[in-house]
Amino acid sequence: MIGLIATDVDGTMLRTDGTLSPRVKAALSAAVEAGIHVVPVTGRPIAIAGDIIRESGLQGHWIFANGAVTRHIGRDTLVRGFWIESELVVALVDKLRRSMPGVGFAIEFERAVVHEPGFDTLVPVVPDGYVASDVLSALRRASTGADGWGRVQKILVFDLSSRFEDLYRSVVDVAADDVVASYSGRAFVELAAGRVTKASALALLATDLGVARSSVVCFGDNNNDVPMLEWAGTGYAMANGTAEAKAAADEVIEPSDRDGLAVKVEELVAAHSAIG
């Protein structure tokens, strides 16, 4: 019996053009109707997830920002959050700037993103916030609470002049003792508090819901999905995924552009219903 289906969003639930397939939407809805918890687990902050939340119709739990934030959408409640303290943000930014001249930063707050020039060229949509010559000045402004941005959930590091592989390796070397680094297909490194990953957030939510790890099925396509693909009872990687994601999974399925998620979820729901 399946207790919970967790799925990455971009590159897994969505096609590579960013659209949601009607078949995927129907398959996930059928899983909910069969009594299975369906939990999207995304690197996106909630500030740029509103479109897919509305289109998917999924009103249960969502995990955002690579595990930093868990919310129940239907109840509009924060279930759990892992924040990076302002003092640590300042220390990390200073340390990375000293070690890696030329890097730029964006800071994801609960309800906005502030970024330095150039970050907007790396993402299709920049959520509410503003461009700052120095994100630390924005952090000081946010600490007053006047903007209502909330707490820091992620730091994003980019360098328009270097290879991403070199950037990632350098960031890990400098920051790995303080935060966990990951990436999700965009040309920036994502830093989250402590040991927070999609897997750690999902494990806590599964406990909340009384679902055994062995009954959790996960789907993903990128580096930031690896922890939950390894943690789950069964992990499925998309054929359009990275080599790391495929290596972490129990099975590689059809790509997102061929509705691979829907095909497998339909199969799993049918088996679940037959057992039930």
Describe the structure.
The chain folds into 2 domains: 4-81 and 197-275, HAD superfamily/HAD-like (Rossmann fold); 86-193, Hypothetical Protein, Haloacid Dehalogenase-like Hydrolase, Chain: A, domain 2, CATH 3.30.1240. Helices cover 36% and strands 22% of the residues. The chain contains 10 helices and 14 strands. The strands form 3 sheets. The protein has a 6-stranded mixed β-sheet with strand order 8-7-6-9-11-10, covered by helices on one side. It has a 5-stranded parallel β-sheet with strand order 2-1-12-13-14. Strands 3-4-5 form a 3-stranded antiparallel β-sheet, with helices on one face. Strand 6 (104-109) and strand 7 (113-115) form a beta hairpin. It is globular. The N and C termini lie close together (8 Å). The relative contact order is 0.18. The model has no long low-confidence stretch (mean pLDDT 94).
Q: What assembly state would you assign to the polypeptide chains in this entry? A: single chain
Q: Strand content of the residues, in percent?
A: 15-25%
Q: Do you know the CATH architecture of the largest domain?
A: 3-Layer(aba) Sandwich
Structural class, by secondary structure, is: alpha/beta
Radius of gyration: 18 Å
User: Which whole number gives the mean pLDDT?
Assistant: 94
Main sheet specs: 6 strands, mixed
- Ends apart, CA distance between termini: 8 Å
CATH superfamily of the largest domain: HAD superfamily/HAD-like
Per CATH, the class of the largest domain reads Alpha Beta
Number of domains: 2
The helix/strand order is EHHEHEEEHEEEHEHEEHEHEHEH
Low-confidence stretches: none
Number of strands: 14
Identify the strand order in the major beta sheet.
Answer: 8-7-6-9-11-10
Task: Tell me, briefly, the overall form.
Answer: globular
CATH fold naming of the largest domain: Rossmann fold
Binned, the helix content reads: 25-40%
Give the helix tally.
10
